[in-house]
Design goal:
The complex is a heterodimer of chains A (about 625) and B (about 270).
Chain A lengths: L10 E7 L5 H13 L3 H14 L16 H6 L6 E6 L4 E6 L7 H9 L3 E7 L6 H12 L4 E7 L8 H15 L6 E6 L23 H7 L12 E3 L2 E3 L7 E5 L4 E3 L3 E4 L5 E8 L7 E3 L3 E6 L10 E3 L6 E12 L10 E6 L2 E15 L4 E4 L8 E14 L6 H4 E6 L5 E10 L15 H8 L4 E6 L6 H14 L4 E5 H4 L11 H20 L3 E5 L5 H9 L6 E7 L2 H7 L4 H6 L21 E4 L5 H15 L1
Parallel strand pairs in A: 1-3, 1-4, 4-5, 5-6, 23-25, 23-26, 24-25, 26-27
Antiparallel strand pairs in A: 2-3, 7-15, 8-9, 9-14, 10-13, 11-12, 11-15, 12-14, 16-20, 16-22, 17-18, 17-21, 18-19, 18-20, 21-22
Helix pairs in contact in A: 10-16, 12-13
Chain B lengths: L6 H14 L8 E5 L5 H13 L4 E5 L1 H5 L9 H20 L3 E3 L16 E4 L27 E4 L7 H11 L10 E8 L2 E4 L14 E7 L9 E4 L5 H9 L18 H8 L3
Parallel strand pairs in B: 1-2, 3-5
Antiparallel strand pairs in B: 4-5, 6-7, 6-8, 7-9, 8-9
Helix pairs in contact in B: 1-5, 5-6
Classes of the chains: A alpha/beta (about 625), B alpha+beta (about 270).
């Protein structure tokens, strides 16, 4: 007897395709013809076919699968169904995913635990949008083998030309998806052609039948080669003398005496015993549930990840991920969730929605929201560091879910992509042309003139005059005005404290690039926080950052109100204006203070130019 | 953890003992009794519970029994609702359990095929098939809102064949009712009903005979059909179901009562 417990030979596959392509019929036919229906099942099927069937006078194999009353009445499949059947060669578990566009989430669910996808295509409709979406989701979720069942071949008189046309279209579409194998088979689910036996009606087709293909394909994944990953599920402490860590080896293997590390803390210890109900083991491979005891007493709790210390996962608070959005309400930047990865659950924030994956074209477009069934790249920040591997390298440790904090429903399936913090894997490149050489060519010393002050203090006006005067003196300059940058590179940022900090960080980085190009950068930016300005200064060589305080009292800014912001704040329509709703921290030791109540803009600019001429 | 002494329960208990070893399973075991359980099954249940020192709770719907609800004259669907569904709900409420672990499998019945491994129940234990969480990888969302409860089905992806293969591989003790033996039975439709005690009401034409039969599943004895068999050990059972012409739950008179009856029962809170 063949059993799913026999992991070596079992195949878990996903069946997907558009509505009415005949997917349920195909799977029903596959099960019925390969294993034979049991007598009571056949009797029920025949009765159901008379009551609900869509095949006049015949047996409707789809009714074997469509279990829920609602979908029998509507004649559609509305949820993932799991079927099991076996032949003498192999045991099969089928996840039957629905074809409706709004049910992409079920498709992703089925794909997450499958090794192969059977994609149904109606030969009369060709490779429709749904089929392309399903192929793309299967690839994204890590399925590496696909079988395209080109169905209803009987309805086009077994036309080879029509079949080859779809075969070519799929091949062209799927190339960037990097499937390890693609098998395209002409079938008739209703009549059984090429489902279990090769059909005599497609003499031009020399490939395998669907069942033969499923029975023989080798889908052994690379998890065996992946490094040890063991999420601790439970700390087993029956009494004071025993402290073990229970869980399942998700990838790699563990053996007695081998060094293991705790991903989060980095602490290294060794495996003392591998405890099981049937006695201690010498080693345990991926898929095995065991309890480990360790040689050192180190702090380990549920949620920790034990790893191979030589091949460590990423441990970070900030990372990029692709999300399959499953929630009814769209994803919003800065939204807060619970993130569950492995056996740990931590608070997390969507810091940014980067783009959206267009599945039909396999391209990415900019976007700042994700709605139900959309897939897109996001940035995530967690409250405490989490450990992961990129999903493309390890499905077991790269997949996570986001849980809505209010409804406690699953809002998204996530696929970890890369660490965003501190760019640990990026090594700086140094070129032949140095910043000093660029500066020398321009005959000047690069500087950053950083004008800080309240909104309406006169920073932009003074900066503009400074640049004009420097250019007149033959200096090469670049003006970086906060308001202008907020319309371009910083257009995604708001006015909360985190966004203001990011705004200043980016402007600081840009100013640094300008100085490396040999330019004098003039920055006009409120930059209300000392720490942010200090960080910008720290990017530059000593003496290159010139902090200039445009000192205008609040009352004067309010009277001038060149941008009408104070008028808005007076009407209560602007709550976060610096100096009113928001704090401003003046510089402690600026290089220059410009009191605009005592100086005209021209005079202030002249002071700045004088300072610069003394330094370049 | 639900524990009835049947084959799926036995596998579930075995897995729990293995998973928590060397500790013992850190939860109580609950049997929903109807008063019409096979005597042998109850004996087996008590024997196993005492051997493994299980914290065994037995709950029955005494009100329904006093009201005269019985498997002979009460309509089968109503009997099952009162004695199983309602009793289970009462027990979960009485003990305040937030998660109940059961041995349900997706291959048993069509509507079970869409059941989640972790199945959320709204307050009142109601199953809404449209409000089930997607289950990706092995990363399950286990958060419950106030009043919600969870049913967990660790054997979801096992088949009947897997159950028997595992029982054989692990030599798990099984109640002898699964093995063929000479039993006193009565014909009801296409199957044989065991005469387990004197409460069976015999009609004028009923003839009790002794036949070599076994049970494929075990429910209330008056509602569970036996079939002719000579399979007297696990290996023979495995060989028998490999060539069976009927599916597993066919012997359950409760299931056939109405179309999609399992789905209806589940919506009301049946396991």
């Amino acid at each position: 007897m063949d059993s799913l417990l026999d992991q070596r030979s079992a195949l878990r596959f996903l069946a997907c395709g558009s509505v009415d392509d005949g997917k349920s019929t195909l799977i029903g036919r596959l099960i019925a013809d390969s294993t034979g229906l049991l007598d009571d099942q056949r009797a029920n099927l025949e009765e159901d076919s008379r009551r609900f069937g869509t095949v006049a006078g015949g047996v409707d194999f789809a009714l074997l699968l469509d279990g829920l009353e609602a979908e029998r009445e509507q004649g559609i499949t509305i949820d993932v169904a799991h079927r099991f059947f076996s032949t003498p060669r192999r045991a099969f578990a089928v996840a039957d995913a629905p074809g409706h566009q709004q049910f992409t989430r079920n498709m992703a669910t089925g794909a997450s635990n499958a090794d192969l996808a059977v994609l149904l295509v109606d030969i009369r409709n060709g490779l429709v949008e749904q089929a392309r979406r399903h192929a793309a989701i299967a690839a994204l979720l890590g399925i590496r083998h696909v079988v395209v069942a080109v169905n209803k071949i009987d309805l086009v008189d077994f036309s080879e030309r029509r079949f080859r046309c779809i075969e070519r279209a799929f091949d062209a579409f799927a190339r960037p998806l990097a499937f390890r194998s693609v098998t395209v088979i002409p079938v008739s689910a209703r009549n059984g052609d090429n489902v279990v036996q090769r059909s005599v009606r497609t003499p031009w087709y020399d490939g395998p039948s669907l069942l033969h293909c499923l029975e023989t394909i080798d889908v052994r994944a690379t998890v065996d080669n992946a490094p040890l990953r063991f999420p601790v599920q439970w700390v087993n402490r029956p009494d004071a003398s025993f402290r073990g860590f229970a869980g399942t080896v998700m990838s790699g293997s563990v053996s007695v005496g081998a060094p293991v590390a705790v991903a989060g803390s980095g602490r290294i210890t060794r495996v003392e015993r591998i405890v099981s109900f049937d006695g201690d083991l010498a080693d345990a491979a991926a898929g095995r549930a065991v309890t480990l005891t360790l040689t050192d007493e180190i702090d380990i709790v549920r949620g920790d990840l034990l790893i191979d210390p030589r091949l460590r996962p990423t441990v970070t608070r900030q990372f990029a991920a692709d999300l399959v959005w499953l929630g009814d309400t769209p994803a919003q930047p800065r939204q807060s969730f619970l993130l569950k990865i492995g056996t740990t659950t931590v608070p997390a924030t969507l810091t940014r929605i980067v783009d959206r994956l267009e599945l039909e074209a396999l391209s990415r477009t900019a976007g700042d929201a994700l709605d139900l069934n959309a897939i897109g790249r996001v940035w995530i920040e967690t409250a405490v560091p989490v450990a992961f591997d990129p999903y493309a390298e390890n499905r077991a440790t790269g997949g996570f879910i986001l849980i809505d904090r209010a409804t406690l429903r699953t809002a998204a399936a996530g696929l970890a992509v890369e660490n965003l913090a501190a760019a640990t894997n990026v090594h700086p490149q140094t070129g032949q042309v140095t910043p000093a050489r660029r500066a020398a060519m321009k005959g000047q010393r690069p500087l950053v003139l950083w004008l800080t002050g309240l909104p309406g203090a006169g920073k932009s006006t003074i900066a503009d005059l400074v640049e004009r005067k420097l250019v007149e003196h033959g200096r090469q300059t670049m003006l970086l005005d906060g308001d202008n940058l907020r319309q371009g590179i910083n257009s995604d940022l708001g006015f909360d404290n985190a966004s203001r900090a990011e705004n200043v960080r980016r402007v600081g980085e840009i100013a640094r690039l300008m100085t490396e190009a040999g330019l004098i950068a003039i920055v006009a930016l409120v930059s209300p926080f000392r720490a942010d300005r200090l960080r910008a200064a720290s990017l530059l060589p000593d003496g290159s950052f010139v902090e200039i305080f445009v000192d205008t009292p609040m009352e004067v800014c309010r009277q001038r109100d060149t941008k009408g912001l104070h008028a808005l704040a007076d009407k209560g329509r602007l709550s976060n204006l610096t100096g009113r709703g928001q704090p401003y921290e003046p510089p402690e030791q600026p290089a220059l203070v410009l009191r605009t109540t005592e100086l005209s803009a021209e005079q202030a600019a002249d002071r700045v130019v004088a300072l610069v001429q003394g330094r370049v | 953890m639900l524990y009835s002494g049947g084959k799926d329960s036995s596998v579930l208990l075995h897995l729990a003992r293995k998973a928590f070893y060397p500790a013992r399973p850190p939860f109580p075991f609950l049997h929903i009794a109807t008063g019409w359980d096979f005597r042998e099954l109850l004996e087996h249940r008590d024997r196993i519970a005492s051997a493994h020192r299980l914290d065994l709770l037995v709950h029955a719907n005494d009100d329904a029994t006093r009201a005269g609800i019985n498997p002979f004259t009460t309509e089968t669907g109503e009997y099952s609702r009162l004695m199983l569904t309602e009793t289970l709900r009462q027990a979960l409420d009485r003990y305040g359990f937030d998660v109940a672990i059961g041995g349900g499998r997706r291959d048993e019945e069509k509507s079970r095929a869409k059941e989640r491994i972790f199945s959320r129940r709204a307050p009142g234990h109601v199953w809404n098939p449209r409000d089930q969480q997607p289950e990706l990888w092995r990363t399950f969302n286990l958060r419950l809102a106030p009043g919600e409860t969870m049913r967990a089905f660790p054997l979801s992806n096992w088949t009947e064949a897997d159950i028997w293969a595992y029982i054989q591989a692990e030599t798990i003790p099984i109640v002898p009712l699964y093995f063929a033996s000479e039993r006193r039975v009565l014909q009801r439709g296409a199957s044989w009903i065991a005469v387990d005690d004197h409460r069976l009401r015999l009609g004028a034409d009923d003839r009790v005979e002794t036949r070599r039969v076994r049970f494929r599943t075990l429910g209330c004895w008056p509602l569970t059909g036996a079939h002719d068999s000579s399979a007297a050990d696990v290996a023979a059972i495995i060989a028998e179901i490999g060539t069976a012409r009927l599916s597993e739950r066919q012997g359950r008179l409760v299931d056939g009562a109405r179309h999609a009856s399992m789905e209806r029962k589940k919506r009301e809170g049946y396991f």
